[in-house]
C-alpha cells in the first residue's frame, strides 16, 4: 500500500502474475448529492496497448460491481 485516505482513496503497487513490472493503482470512492462514484486510475503502464487492456479490465470490474449491487 502506497497511501490511504480514510473514506476517500487508496493507492497501491500492483503486479498481475503475468507482468514483469509493477503498476500503481488508485481506487477512489466519492459520494456527492446522493450518488457514489467509484474510480480506478492506473499508472506506470508499459504502453498504449497495455493501457487499453487495463481500461477494458477496470471497466469490466465496475460493471460487475454494478451488477452485484443491482445498479446496471
Automatic annotation (TrEMBL):
It comes from Amycolatopsis dongchuanensis. Belongs to the AHA1 family. Residues 8-69 form the Activator of Hsp90 ATPase homologue 1/2-like C-terminal domain. SUPFAM superfamilies: Bet v1-like (SSF55961). The lineage of its organism: Bacteria, Bacillati, Actinomycetota, Actinomycetes, Pseudonocardiales. InterPro entries: ASHA1/2-like_C, START-like_dom_sf. It comes from the Bacteria. This is Activator of Hsp90 ATPase homologue 1/2-like C-terminal domain-containing protein.
